[in-house]
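Example 3.2
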Amino acid sequence: MKQGDIDAVKQSIAHWERMIQWAMKQPGDAEVLRYIMCKQIGETWNASDCALCRIHLREPGFVVCGNCPVANAGFQCLEFGSPWSQVNLSKTWKQWLKEAKVMLKTLQSIDRNGRSMERVK
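Structure, written as tokens:
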């Protein structure tokens, strides 16, 4: 992996840790409202807030997530059932937290070669 990708993985891990810390303070049965998170902490799980997406989402030739380390590790975010899509589909903060922790583990499992060290569940 390039140094820029290594740095972006670290930044993405920190990003998910911050969101999880914030979400832990929300009522578990409350509806997931992205705009409230954005208003309170200035970031959400949008691509514009992801260091990896800012590098890889629209690469030359319009390859979505082309050489993103998450996609290369077998976790294409935009595929149905991926850790990110499960976060995005969450209806309550309790569910969101469960799925966000899987996304965080996914990021933490990526080694310096851009491979997943384990299949995360």
